[in-house]
Amino acid sequence: MSMTQTTTPGTTPRTTPPARGRLRPDVTDRDHSRGPVDAAVTLVEYGDYQCPYCRQAHPLVKVLQRRLGDVGSPFRFVFRNFPLIEIHPRALHAAEAAESVAAHGGEVAFWAMHDAIFEHQRDSAIALSDQHLAKYAAVAGVDETLVARDLKNGVHEPRVQEDFLGGVRSGVNGTPTFFINGARFDGDWTDADAFARALEDAAAVALANGR
Amino acid sequence: MVLPPGLPAPGFSLLASPDHLLSLAELRGRPVILAFYPADWSPECGDQMALYNEVLPEFERLGAQLVGLSVDGVWCHRAFAEDRRLRFPLLAEFEPKGEVARRYWAYREEDGTAERALFVIDADGVIRWSYLSPVGVNPGADGILDALEAIAAEEATPRLPAQESAP
Q1: What are the strands, taking DSSP E only, across chain B?
Q2: B4 lies in some domain
Q3: Do B135 and A18 touch (CB under 8 A)?
Q4: Which of A94, B69, B136, B147 is within CB 3.0–4.6 Å of A3 for a Cys-Cys bond?
Q5: Is position B6 within any domain?
């Protein structure tokens, strides 16, 4: 497919032009976040635990957090669920398991679980089975029977669904989709340098605006 | 630009499967979403049709019917729809190629494909919202849902003729 962008978005006349690709549910205490909460830049990822691209993005985000922290522009990272359940049948339970771990073990446990799921995603065809998810939960420090029970009862499905719908309303267009300070990043996230520059530029704008 | 809001949506009748034609007139009476896209088989996690498939319950909640259109043929559409488990029709603009896309001002002469263009048509067959996305950027579903909600809100508020006072 051609990537030439000869057209301009938003040229269609509209009486009320809504912004396209703007994060709508603001980042709140409800979110899972990593990094300084008062950072000038917040990076939000809508991701899917069974998505191979999200698995690739996972170490990249960590590297960028370290690198930008080193040069004095740390950012806060927020992960929200966007399971594409028709093409990724294990993604919903993986997301529910991560939320279950957060509910029982708190934020530190959530991030340990988040890391574990992505790190094990490709171990085998059953790496994201309920049984394996419960094992990762145990390693993250949460009683695996609690997580297994939550999965069985779909306790955290509404929360995952809420994330998904918020993503849809924000203009999420695939996984992963990133938002830098609320604006959808339509650049190439696999280009680490360009991604880092976009984050640094957002920090410069935020600081210029007195943040 | 693509056909703007306020104009009647051009009618069409296209193959939705090897032996079934679907026409816009058949869908009259409820909002219709037309999603023109360049080609089947883009990478699955970022694929526009796969995304809309996941959002289908929301479109249905708002009473709308989604239809995808590209210049791919019916057999290609069938394989693609099966692979992605799509639960809405894909129409083949294969022959005459791109004729409907042209009538919506959504055809790319240079590539011989449809643009990545969205139209929301109301129950009366009038275009209520349209959007042309850069061909490499999946536009997501936020604009569609905004347009459908605007239509639903209007239906919920009965319109009285301007000169008539309430009894």
Answers
A1: 13-17, 20-23, 32-36, 65-70, 90-92, 107-108, 113-114, 116-121, 127-133
A2: no
A3: no
A4: B136
A5: no
Q: Which ipTM was obtained for this model?
A: 0.87
Q: For residue B63, tell me if it sits in a domain.
A: yes
- Closest to A206 measured CA to CA, from A42, A77, A44: A42
The CB density around residue A91, as the number of other CB atoms within 10 Å, is: 25
Whole domain around residue B90: which residue ranges? 28-156
Tell me if residue B57 falls in helix, strand or coil.
helix
Yes or no, beta carbons of A7 and B146 under 8 Å apart:
no
Q: Do A174 and B138 touch (CB under 8 A)?
A: yes
B8 within domain boundaries: no
> How many domains would you assign to chain B?
1
How many angstroms separate the CA atoms of B42 and A182, rounded? 26
Q: Which residues of B touch A52 (CB under 8 A)?
A: 45
Annotated active-site residue in B1, B45, B156, B166: B45
Which domains are delineated in chain A? Answer: 32-208 (3.40.30.10)
Interchain CB contact of B115 with A (< 8 Å): yes
pLDDT digit string (tens) for B92-148?
999 999 999 999 999 999 999 999 999 999 999 999 999 999 999 999 999 999 999
Please list the rounded mean pLDDT of every run of 10 residues in chain A (211 residues): 39 46 95 96 98 97 96 95 96 98 98 98 97 98 98 98 97 97 95 96 91 65
Q: What is the pTM assigned to this prediction?
A: 0.89
> Is B45 known to be catalytic?
yes
Q: Which residues are CB-contacts of A50 (< 8 A; sequence separation ≥ 6)?
A: A83, A88, A89, A90, A91, A94, A121, A128
* Tens digit of each residue's pLDDT (9 = 90 or more) over B130-139: 999 999 999 9
